[in-house]
Automatic annotation (TrEMBL):
Pfam families: Amidohydro_1. GO terms for molecular function: hydrolase activity, acting on carbon-nitrogen (but not peptide) bonds. Keywords: Hydrolase. This is Chlorohydrolase. It comes from Clostridium polyendosporum. The keyword Hydrolase applies. Residues 49-398 form the Amidohydrolase-related domain. InterPro entries: Amidohydro-rel, Metal-dep_hydrolase_composite, Metal_Hydrolase, MTA/SAH_deaminase. PANTHER family: AMIDOHYDROLASE-RELATED DOMAIN-CONTAINING PROTEIN (PTHR43794:SF11), AMINOHYDROLASE SSNA-RELATED (PTHR43794).
Length: 431
């Protein structure tokens, strides 16, 4: 049995000082230090806050090799951003590049205290077997949890995309990984493709970009005479637990459909600002009972930055300092854990008996008192403001110990660099 001792626990629900946590893969017991009876492996957490490790609700591991990529880029709109950067990039990825980008991304996730990711994957050179490559690198090798899918798009062989999603989602399952059905966006999917998908997915939830840009809505209204969400819903695609990423240009009817179908909106404020596409209407989503989870759309791994941008961004959007409360923040955090917990059939997101031992320690010295009444203020203005996890555990395994990775990936990192060079060469040659 392992134990954290002298821990100040902060799991978004409660704040308690001087605690011990007994755990293996799962948290077995939490109590006051005065009652601690010993364990085989003990981590002294004096001076640290112990929190649940974090989750990224919408990301693209394939963005790993875009860092520093220097190609002609002069977009006038969002479609140009896709055509001039992302579609050039993902079209040049093969299985090997996918595997190594997974290792690099997982490495950075661990450093950022993130142990569960919901990925939206695309790779044009090879489609079949790529979700398994992500699972191999991120879950099997790097010991994180992931929910994966392939972005079906008319840019690719649609039948192969559908098969890849179904093979992975209906294949082996574990508490570490799971699959849902990926689709790129309404504007890159014909009615023919939507019908094919609708006929083949049964109750599998979908994961799609929805109304990320004005063009996505405009395309749907001009070509099909209806909004993006109405179009997807008319094909019976918005199943329970589906993820609609971005949801910026939704109207009331669309928000209502998402809420009624028990689907989720994955909001990505930092990415939205980077792409200059505007920010989602959190109030509209909330009014229609749409549960929001937070993602970063593949923009790095430090999701604490996205929580800060969510908190500040909504106040800016509504020109009101009370537009987004600490309760709203807690709800978004909890939604992510509940969603992934459901898909992986585990409990995560609390430091509590029966929950998985997915935890981080963060050194935190506060000039002011911390209590249950002000803990979320400490999260935003203290912990996330200078966020450097010291230790990270996933499923009870220590992955970051005193700021150092416990897995030796030195040699693998050389392979990662080699793969990135190959990908950039393929992009440069426009093969
Ligand atoms: Zn995305």
């Amino acid at each position: 049995m392992k134990a954290l001792i002298n821990a100040n626990i902060f799991d978004f629900e409660i704040y308690k000082e001087g605690q011990y946590v007994l755990f293996e893969e799962e948290i077995k017991e939490v109590g006051n230090m005065s009652e601690f009876k010993g364990a085989d492996e003990v981590y002294d957490c004096s001076g640290s806050i112990i929190m649940p490790s974090l989750l990224n609700g919408h990301t693209h591991v394939y963005s790993t090799f875009a860092r520093g990529l220097n190609i002609p880029f002069n977009p006038k709109n969002f479609k140009d951003i896709l055509e001039q950067l992302w579609w050039k990039m993902d079209s040049k990825l093969d299985r090997r590049a996918v595997y190594y980008s997974g290792i690099a991304y997982a490495h950075d996730c661990i450093k950022s205290g993130v142990t569960t990711i919901i990925d939206h994957h695309a790779s044009g050179l090879e489609i079949s077997g790529t979700l398994n490559e992500l699972k191999k690198s991120i879950c099997d090798y790097m010991s994180l949890r992931g929910i994966f899918c392939f972005e079906t798009s008319d840019r690719f062989n649609v039948d192969e995309c559908i098969k890849e999603n179904l093979d992975f989602a209906k294949g082996s399952k574990s508490n570490n990984y799971s699959g849902i059905f990926g689709m790129h966006a309404s504007m890159s999917l014909s009615d023919n493709t939507l019908k094919k998908i609708s006929d083949s997915i049964d109750d599998l939830p979908i994961h799609i970009h929805a109304a990320e840009s004005f063009e996505d809505e405009e395309d749907s209204k001009i070509k099909y005479g209806k909004s993006v969400v109405k179009r997807l819903d008319d094909f019976n695609l918005i199943k329970e637990n589906s993820i609609l990423a971005h949801c910026i240009y939704l109207d009331k009817e669309e928000a209502e459909i998402i809420g009624k179908r028990n689907a989720y909106a994955a909001i990505n404020p930092t990415s939205n600002m980077n792409n200059a596409v505007g920010l989602f209407d959190y109030r509209l989503l909330k009014e229609h009972n749409v549960r929001c989870i937070l993602g970063n759309d593949g923009l790095g791994t430090n999701i604490s930055r996205d929580y800060l941008n969510l908190f500040f961004g909504m106040k800016y959007r509504f020109k009101s300092p009370i537009a987004f409360s600490f309760d709203d923040l807690k709800e978004v955090i909890d939604n992510g854990y509940k969603y992934a917990g459901k898909l992986l059939n585990i409990k995560i997101g609390r430091i509590k008996t029966g929950y998985r031992a997915d935890m981080i320690s963060v050194l935190y010295k506060s000039p002011t008192a911390i209590s249950n009444d002000n803990k979320m203020s400490h999260l935003i203005f203290g912990i996330f403001d200078n966020f450097h996890p010291k230790d990270v555990w996933c499923d009870g395994e220590i992955l970051l110990k005193n700021y150092e990775m416990t897995k030796n990936i030195g040699d693998i990192y050389n392979e990662i660099k080699k793969e990135s060079i190959k990908v950039w060469e393929r992009i440069g040659k426009g093969e």
